[in-house]
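User: I'm putting together a small comparison set for a docking exercise, and I want a reference complex before I start. The sequence is below, and the ligand is 4-fluoro-L-phenylalanine. Could you produce the 3D structure with the ligand included, as structure tokens?
Assistant: Of course. I'll restate your input first, then give the structure tokens for the complex.
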Amino acid sequence: MATAQSHAQWSSRMGFVLAATGSAVGLGNIWKFPYMVGQSGGAAFVLVYLACIALIGVPILVSEWLLGRRGQKNPINTMAQIAHQHGHHRSWALVGAIGVLGAFLILSFYSVIGGWALAYMRDAIFGSFSGLDKTAIGTAFETFLAQPGELLAWHSLFMLLTIGVVAMGVAGGLERGSKLMMPALGLILIVLVGYGATTGGFGDAAAYLFNPDWTKLDGKVLLAALGHAFFTLSLGMGVMMAYGSYLGEDVNLLRAARTVVIMDTTFALCAGMAIFPIVFANGLDPAAGPGLVFVTLPLAFGNITGGLLLGSLFFLLLTFAALTSSISLLEPVVELLEERTPLNRIGATVVAGLTIWALGIAALLSFNLWSEVKFAGLNVFDLLDYVTSKFMLPLAGLGAIVFVAWKLKQDDVQRELQLGSGGFALWTLLARYVAPIGVLFVFWNNL
Ligand code: PFF
């Protein structure tokens, strides 16, 4: 069993920042963000989203790291221990428990989509989209989803890759994996944005992302933006708390948060500037929703010069992005098992990974054999997504920030954040009022 002394650590500050950025940059940036922009009215959504990230996302991100770093344990024990030390009830451990359970549930369906990315990478490499028309591409996607065996194979492969990286440990797996994949991600994205600039659609794409149409703004857009700010920064899932537990005292949390948030946002916007030029240049629909990446883009890749290379690169990008996030989702569960059971790192990773893989099967069957199996009108896949993103994530995030802002000694927090009195006043305003009220507002609306 791991002891406090043997608790793993990141090997460097940069390694930590890259791993945290890897967690943040994922399917949420490359797949979800562009289609949400498409559905929610372009730049107006982007601006609201940026405000949510700055005012609510950053304080919660910093709070989760701060708690993890103080506890140096899995999220449940971290919360229990810090609450106890400060004379608060141990039930604060629930915040950690909801987080770990949330990560467990999210990874089960995240891996299914990670599998789609892998499958589409194969298709792109073998030129399977070439010459297909809109109907054929749409049908190909539907046929793919209708085959449980096919989905299972790709989900299994994706989960296997995730387990393989996480089993190698914090510095040797999570950190090394991110150090390899993140620069590759950046490079691929630059190539794709560069291609976008050569198409006739670049200006339209920029206008779409950066010219706000305020009439499109309503409560729904606001809710979607805040929900996505949570998801994209990997908040409320024990992930950032677990990552914080491997941190040393020398890291400035606010500075690290600034880097992670800037990189995450840049990746999302660049994904938009890679995808929308192709969409506009080919006269396709920017508001296609979830199918934007798996139907609209393949259609373009199958019909433009260089589409084979561009398509392969794009789906490699999507796969890497998914993988640097999925490893982070597995981590809190593994850390918990490592510390609370006799299992070693590898054993804990295999047990956690296989259990999540099994739940993922229920998720992938929602697209075919179990499409009629519904709970409260939702199939298993949608139910997992709904419960985690609408309830667990806001609750755990809220718990973390309320605890840091209201339950810890504020002098210590100020020292830890290395803030002067002005900076700390701003922090207090955001952490005590703005962020919690924002999350409560979303939570209330979800109810
Ligand atoms: N942030 C990742 C994304 O944008 O795809 C997804 C994610 C990873 C969510 C880790 C939650 C998490 F804990």
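The CA atoms of residues 85 and 408 lie 10 Å apart. The domain at 13-446 is CATH 1.10.4160 (Hydantoin permease).
User: Thanks, that's exactly what I needed.
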